[in-house]
Recover the amino acids of this structure.
């Protein structure tokens, strides 16, 4: 392998190659500290041409490549194995904004651009890039594309897939496909970019993208509504959709146990109501028009929901700081759960209309099988994505609870399948769910995916052991 390493060093320069184990450790461990690998080397190219040279060298030597962005994934999709034979291809040095076309409402960025920096560049140009998620200060757009990330604004703007107009990709052969076209309409054959979005680096290396921008919102209104049950949440969602249309930017659901965790682990937070309720909905409206119209609309819908008995109480943010405080109650749930200790996470999607039934039936099944478990139920109600996490009963040790991982996953995932859902809504499969997905996709679907993989990556060098 020394010849390969020297060839790569010549392509990327000394600053683009890491071979010492102590320096590569941060690139060999996933964000949750669940997967630990041992890379042959970590390569940090600075241009698409350098990526192509590296991939070409690996193709000729059949060296496996693990593409990596900000390394914030939750399913081990960007972590090498422990064989010492896989090359980590980290794109963080490729972080430029190449172009902004304000009139075309597009921005062209390299894969290593941190999401928050992309959002800021759009804002500086008087536009909005709407993808928003908890890791936006460190995740990179290449990783967002590779996992088809979701986030809190999917209800209005769609997943990452819906925000992409064009891609630049280095193929497993080392060839460069330049599909950086900022077109809303291009009916000239297969939509090739969609193959690489959500493929988790198994079909090629995304190096740049043309992304949609939107007019900048000039007003927003945020509220938290108390809920008696998930059925009430669904009724509230319908009411807001009917009254507000596209102004409804997000509607997030979280349980009272989620609120308990946040209040317990973050002392600067405060409960939104004097009394506690089983569930809560966080609602945000936004509009391109300035003024109080958005807030007035929010007040009117909540007042109607109160009058009809859909909700027992509601609190509307009276300032931007209060709006941010309300959002913190939702955004801090994952971190609070991590502080609480061991938990079993699920990132699932269910048809929106069936979410209340799914929660009720799956809760009951888990409680029968594992009495005393505590459910951390929260997520993006408006698009059907639940983070449906299971915490152990009080007093149960983490290692003992971890022994039930497979059984708990089976209960949850089988229930997801019965309700016509997906076992991965926005986090991808990685290596965490690679085997699990075989139970829930048909043999025809799996073989179609494998056929595409064989066609584009005949030697199987792109992110082996992930997704398939």
């Amino acid at each position: 392998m020394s010849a390969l390493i020297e060839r790569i060093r010549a392509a990327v320069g000394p600053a683009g190659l890491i071979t010492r184990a102590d320096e590569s450790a941060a690139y060999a461990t996933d964000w949750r500290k669940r997967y630990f690998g041992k890379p042959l080397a970590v390569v940090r190219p600075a241009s698409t041409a350098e990526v192509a040279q590296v991939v070409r060298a690996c193709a000729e030597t059949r060296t496996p490549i693990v593409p990596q962005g900000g390394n914030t994934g939750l399913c081990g999709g960007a972590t090498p194995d422990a064989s010492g034979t896989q090359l980590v291809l980290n794109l963080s040095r490729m972080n430029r904004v190449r172009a902004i076309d304000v009139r075309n409402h597009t921005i062209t960025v390299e894969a290593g651009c941190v999401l928050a920096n992309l959002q800021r560049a759009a804002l500086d140009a008087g536009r909005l890039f709407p993808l928003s998620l908890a890791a936006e200060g460190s995740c990179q757009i290449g990783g967002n594309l590779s996992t088809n990330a979701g986030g809190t604004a999917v209800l209005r703007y769609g997943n990452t897939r819906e925000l992409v107009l064009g891609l630049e990709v280095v193929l497993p052969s080392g060839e460069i496909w330049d599909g950086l076209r900022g077109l809303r309409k291009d009916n000239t054959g297969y939509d090739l970019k969609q193959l690489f979005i959500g493929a988790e680096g198994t079909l090629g290396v995304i190096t740049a993208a043309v992304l949609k921008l939107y007019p900048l919102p000039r007003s927003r209104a945020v509220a938290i509504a108390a809920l008696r049950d998930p059925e009430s949440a669904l009724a509230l969602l319908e009411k807001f959709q009917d009254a507000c249309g596209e102004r409804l930017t997000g509607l997030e659901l979280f349980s009272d146990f989620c609120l308990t965790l946040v209040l317990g682990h973050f002392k600067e937070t405060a409960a939104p109501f004097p009394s506690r309720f089983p569930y809560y909905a966080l609602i945000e409206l936004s509009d391109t028009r300035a003024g109080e119209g958005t807030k007035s609309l929010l007040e009117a819908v909540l007042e109607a929901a109160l009058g009809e008995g859909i909700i027992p109480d509601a609190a509307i943010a009276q300032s931007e700081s209060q709006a941010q405080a309300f959002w913190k109650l939702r955004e801090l749930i994952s971190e609070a759960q991590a502080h609480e200790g061991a938990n079993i996470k699920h990132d699932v999607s269910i048809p929106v209309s069936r979410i209340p039934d799914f929660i009720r039936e799956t809760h009951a099944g888990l409680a029968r099988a594992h009495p005393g478990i505590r459910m951390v139920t929260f997520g993006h109600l408006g698009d059907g994505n639940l983070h449906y996490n299971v915490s152990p009963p009080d007093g149960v040790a983490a290692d003992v609870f971890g022994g039930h991982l497979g059984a708990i996953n089976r209960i949850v995932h089988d229930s997801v399948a019965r309700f016509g859902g997906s076992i991965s809504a926005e986090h991808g499969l990685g290596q965490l769910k690679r085997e699990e997905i075989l139970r829930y996709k048909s043999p025809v679907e799996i073989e179609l995916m494998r056929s595409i993989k064989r066609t584009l990556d005949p030697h199987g060098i792109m992110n082996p052991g992930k997704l398939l």
Notes: Residues 230-244 form the longest helix (15 residues).
